[in-house]
Amino acid sequence: MAAYVYAFADGSSDMRDILGGKGAELAEMTSIGLPVPDGFTVTTEACRAYLGAGGTWPEGLREQVSEHLAALEERCGGRRLGDPQDPLLVSVRSGAPISMPGMMDTILNLGLNPRSVEGLARSSGNERFAADSYRRFIQMYANVVLGVSSDLFEEAIAGAKQARGVKDDVELDTAALRDLAERFLAISRSETGREFPEDPREQLDGAVEAVFSSWNTPRARTYRRHEGISDDLGTAVNVMQMVFGNLGDDSATGVVFTRNPSTGERAPFGEFLPNAQGEDVVAGIRTPRPIAEMQRDLPQSYRELEEAMATLESHYRDLQDVEFTIERGRFYVLQTRAGKRTAQAAVRVARDLVSEGVIDQNEAVRRINAGQFDQLMHPAIDPAAEYDVLATGLNASPGAAVGRAVFDADTAEARGRAGEPVILVRWETTPDDIHGVIQAQGVLTAHGGMTSHAAVVARGMGKPCVCGVEALRIDAGARSFSVDGTVVSEGDEISIDGSRGHVISGAVPLVPPQMTDDFAAVTTWADEARRLGVRANADTPEDARRAREFGAQGIGLCRTEHMFFGDERLPVMREMILARDEEGRRAALDRLLPFQQSDFEGILAAMDGDPVTIRLLDPPLHEFLPDLEDVDPSDERLRSRIKALREVNPMLGTRGCRLGLLHPEIYEMQVRAIVRAALTVDGSKAEVMHPLVAFATELQRLRDLTERVIEEEGGGDLGILIGTMVEVPRAALLADRIAPYADFMSFGTNDLTQTTLAFSRDDAEGKFLTQYLEDDVLSRNPFETLDDGVRALIERAVERARGVKPDIKLGICGEHGGDPDSVEFCNAVGLDYVSCSPFRVPTARLAAAQAELAQR
Amino acid sequence: MAAYVYAFADGSSDMRDILGGKGAELAEMTSIGLPVPDGFTVTTEACRAYLGAGGTWPEGLREQVSEHLAALEERCGGRRLGDPQDPLLVSVRSGAPISMPGMMDTILNLGLNPRSVEGLARSSGNERFAADSYRRFIQMYANVVLGVSSDLFEEAIAGAKQARGVKDDVELDTAALRDLAERFLAISRSETGREFPEDPREQLDGAVEAVFSSWNTPRARTYRRHEGISDDLGTAVNVMQMVFGNLGDDSATGVVFTRNPSTGERAPFGEFLPNAQGEDVVAGIRTPRPIAEMQRDLPQSYRELEEAMATLESHYRDLQDVEFTIERGRFYVLQTRAGKRTAQAAVRVARDLVSEGVIDQNEAVRRINAGQFDQLMHPAIDPAAEYDVLATGLNASPGAAVGRAVFDADTAEARGRAGEPVILVRWETTPDDIHGVIQAQGVLTAHGGMTSHAAVVARGMGKPCVCGVEALRIDAGARSFSVDGTVVSEGDEISIDGSRGHVISGAVPLVPPQMTDDFAAVTTWADEARRLGVRANADTPEDARRAREFGAQGIGLCRTEHMFFGDERLPVMREMILARDEEGRRAALDRLLPFQQSDFEGILAAMDGDPVTIRLLDPPLHEFLPDLEDVDPSDERLRSRIKALREVNPMLGTRGCRLGLLHPEIYEMQVRAIVRAALTVDGSKAEVMHPLVAFATELQRLRDLTERVIEEEGGGDLGILIGTMVEVPRAALLADRIAPYADFMSFGTNDLTQTTLAFSRDDAEGKFLTQYLEDDVLSRNPFETLDDGVRALIERAVERARGVKPDIKLGICGEHGGDPDSVEFCNAVGLDYVSCSPFRVPTARLAAAQAELAQR
């Protein structure tokens, strides 16, 4: 029979898969001698068995829980769970193999009933504490396990306070709390139609089941989908002896990061609340005090905390996120885990750990979450901007954001999805707000500290967040907030600066991100480890320069369509399209040539000798003509041309190399401009890329054209490479036929995804694709992470192209080039480079290194 | 060194690849003792070497020609080529490995010059004949080899006739012909800037080169593209002793088919012209006489012809197309080849040959050109129609056609391509008209007989043709023709009945084709030989019945979208689309259900127990709404729904199973209608097909939905199969993931071609695809014959699907299911069935049998 239960003393860090992250670390900490409350863990395997059987306990689980409970009672000096005399109380918490903060439900003070509450009063010598613990337990259990709405309990508390004329929970006396407990039991009875369970073991079993079931709540599923976590893992259940931070002023509870998770600075970072239970801190209900003050108020415990932090960092060799409780001066560590951190902190911590000799540079590279790396690329407020700060709060997650204020998660989701930048403004956020946070540019809360839900989640997602802005007066009903008389209503623009904790009314100008020294150091280490080249997609000299700053080794995709727009150019382009014959088209093209040449010169110069892959004109010609509705009805010539060029499915129409073959004069002009520019810019490396090739003959003819023009322009010695984009399934399927005419092939994964899946991006996103993601038909957006079908095509193409031309240069250009999971695939399949948007270049560099290190 | 030249006596039938069809058969006939003029053949290998070297004679070729020429002179009684005394004259003709009638150039009477023409006059005793031969030779050689426009010679002839006051060439006397030869030489000299070659060997070499080069003329390329013949074969050159059919009334030339190539009847069929050269017959310049009259006029020669035909048929075991010449009573066979025939004749001949014990039934099946089989499916004039016959000509190629009269090939091509049915009307057609014939519905000529160019080509293409309508007065300048005062202008509708030789003014009603007994017999033999099942694509009971008549074994694709149209249905469908909620949609769907159920009952009943694969709704919903322009501006609701449903690329949008997942109530209704219909029709076999599946989860969920509805309707015992269409590349690439949820998979090759090639059919045909075919970027239309990329996908899908589910049923539905080349692929790749339009079912049955026989 499977071992479904492990005592903390019997587990270890490497049993994460079955004990969950929290359980494995509780076991690990126990084994390295840290003061962890005693307990045991029910495995994820038990959870899977339970859920798989439709909510039935697997054989043997109940007995194993009994055995471990008995042993725990033994180790806790013989105190029995819920014993009327000196009761052992336990907490029951979830713990999945992958950290999912706030996603799962927790029960505290389990074991209390009308008899054991008296025992607790006696053993703690604190009747009010016992009564408060009991009403908390009933409230929590009834809500989480029995499904009773928490509003009913809040109303009862409000009623009790009103009846007694007090404002704060802490002002309620023992008698009031006892009444409240009775009232809570009555609420539970009337809502569930049965008595609240008094038997401690029945309580425990119910809590375990509730944790199991909470694996499948919508909010847990949403989080997993967003983070790409499998639904099959299941969660473990940790049953731990209760220790109390709320037994008076020599008790406390707190959360501390061993280093600053926002900046990476090497100093404890966290908060504590005297005379409180841990949930009070995490939920952001009371604003806690900075950890530094604990040194003054609880000096002995602070020293123990420092020791524990040192032990944990040296054991785990990483920044730790530690929960602790002090019960009447006795210090306990309740939990540790690798601390969630901003990318900025991640690079600083990694770099410092290397300096400190704790890890090597490859380990530093491995450690950083490449998916999170993008957040370093968040914009900041333009240093030159002048603005008034409306209010200041905690700088909970760095970066600046501008958007319209919205006051609930649903609105944030709806408007955010529609493409509107929004800032979610809340008293505090809860796990139920996740879907709104995902769509918001940033988060602003009135309550909560640096470790509140909003702060943790925003940092994890790399979104700017300002927390605990006490001056904020939110009127949720009116959908507005005010600060000192200034009213901001839903839809008004605001700005937040998560690096400084500033809230600003109106939109401030932002500037692009800069690379810090830490960042530069870590990406340099990544460069030493990676095999894949990293290029950027850039169309202008400015983008090209930025790409180089971020470490791009060339331009993998320089689109040329924008070179046909602009006040001076578009009219000429239209002349070309409207010309009656080739002669007319050539005349117009001759006038466009100097513009393009100068554009190319700028880009080639900016890249200073690094290769620049220039894609010839791709979009259908109708994109350059005005909408029919905007044309003078008497302009029959233009109207009929617009009608003639209309397409039912422009994505699959006359574009790309099809244009180049139908109107060779266009591509001739572009190649001519490229060669002339390359001749002008010393040491430049231009590459000509023909889009949308599906047939070898297409590329063969365009190669002939390109070579001829290079020859005509005297560019024979420039070493200009000629290649193609692979963005049509046929080209990938029969890459061995096309490769002979290509010096390089670049997978255009945006269009390749559209054609392989028959997904028009314009028609899918916000429509059926969004629905597919919500309904779990798809687990990931194929336009963000390469789809398996597209991967299969790339695999086949690589194999076939290399089969006939082993040294052909292969890469991808498309948004997937900056997606870590896709980069890993590109590395494994043997591509030579990836190309992505300039801001994702650092991510791609890191991901490429991680892929290579993982493969070694 | 390669042997580049073979004497006729040294070759044989199986050397087609190097001797070409004509050369191989001349050799074969020589070896079986038929009276063939002596000669030799220059191989296709020599042609390839010559063309490959850019027009340089390969080493040794010149010497080999010299040796074989000397040997030929020896065998011809020592007469030397172009000898001044008793000259040997030769013809030089092309002959490719695959018959290409009219495509290549021919030179007759080679060896004549100012001296040898005197010798010819002496040896023939006919000065006029000699002079005429000489001027013909100069005219032909100057035109074909030296590139002088034939118009100049025609003008000179016209001038000579005018000067002498005669109307016909034959009225020109010897002196006139001699003058004409001098005039021709002067024309050649002034056009080419050099003397016309007098040296017989120089003439020969020039003619050989001209034949080689004619392989690459545009018209030859056009023909090859249309027929799918490779450009790499090259042509052989046949050099043959001249024999003359124009040496008086005991001389003649003719063409005869051993059986009737139009009907297949077992009787010689052909024409002869007394005192004429062969070119006169083929070019249709003089209208020849029926072969039967030769029995009366040249009885001895006719007996020899009968003997030769019997020998040829028993040797080749097939209908032969024989050219012969009688020179002063001496009978020669000049050429034989398998006779081009109508499909009607092909099946009759094949069936007769089996009855005669000459071939077995598999050989009969193998013999018939499956690509040509479609022509049996040509419509005929409705027997009930009343109409007046305007004129009668030869019934040169069967079937009836209706279209607008056009008078030149370019117009025929342009209007035909634009989708307009046209009839090409010409005095006679020439190889330069091919592109027009291809696009025309039928051909009508005033001149030419049953073996004229128009007749041969039309029969080959299966197009109706009426030839030699002497009453036709064509005014090419005015673009009209008249018959007895009735004038038909360009663009006027006419009808032709190629089975009866009738020309009718205006459009007559046509009826669909019927299967003849011969046809039924041959397809039954095909059924015995084939492995592949053949189904039809049919959406109505009427189509279903027709499909069964043509031998379909089921319906492979029954589209259901038309079931939402119609006066009673469309308003309800629109109600459904405009409904505010699911309830509203369901209410509308409930009203559509009885319609669909009765449609399904009709189809299931018509198929009488054969399987019917029903595809659920596929097109996007906007197809059921009116155009925005047609909507009342005040109907904001409808307008906004139309706008919301608009798609940029509807082909890749919300359609197929995406609709079924977004609005499950639609598919539920359809499945319900199918189950109810299946329960009503005894023994029916319905199959439910889900379109556009790309992901396994899509099909998994739709399978669940389908099974649930079947269960709800009590259809559990009906054995309804559930499957999917594979029309998205991803589904083919990862077929192993989808197969577990599919009882069958049907490749929807129309859409699969569109997505794999990124070719929107709506935007490609008539636009870039047409241009690609013209410019040889593509050799075949991928919407007619399966593209290699699509084939690669199907191959992979079959392998992967069978890998996880060996007994899965696999088929294709799409127009390719009726294309012989594609059917061959489907057989080879191991599909279970093909499904095509009802009229192509017989073709598919035959092609499937041929594929299987070829594979054995």
Task: Give a written overview of the molecule.
The structure is a homodimer of 856-residue chains. By secondary structure, chain A is α/β, with parallel strands linked by helices. An eight-stranded mixed sheet of chain A has the order 12-22-21-14-15-16-17-13. In chain A, strands 24-25-26-27-28-29-30-31 form an eight-stranded parallel β-barrel, surrounded by seven helices. A five-stranded antiparallel sheet of chain A has the order 1-2-5-3-4. In chain A, a hairpin with a 2-residue loop joins β9 (320-327) and β10. The model of chain A has no long low-confidence stretch (mean pLDDT 91). The interface between A and B is large, with 48 and 48 residues.
List low-pLDDT spans of chain A.
Answer: none
Distance between the termini of chain A: 38 Å
Greatest chain-chain contact: A-B, 48 and 48 residues
Number of helices of chain A: 32
From the spread of the alpha carbons, the general shape of chain A counts as elongated
Mean pLDDT of chain A equals 91
Question: What is the percent of helical residues of chain A?
Answer: 40-55%
- Proportion of beta-strand residues of chain A: 15-25%
Q: Give the strand order of the largest sheet of chain A, numbering strands 1, 2, ... along the chain.
A: 12-22-21-14-15-16-17-13
Structural category of chain A is: alpha/beta
Q: Quaternary arrangement of the chains shown? A: homodimer
Alpha carbon gyration radius of chain A: 32 Å
Short note summarizing the structure:
The structure is a homodimer of 856-residue chains. Chain A contains 32 helices and 31 strands.
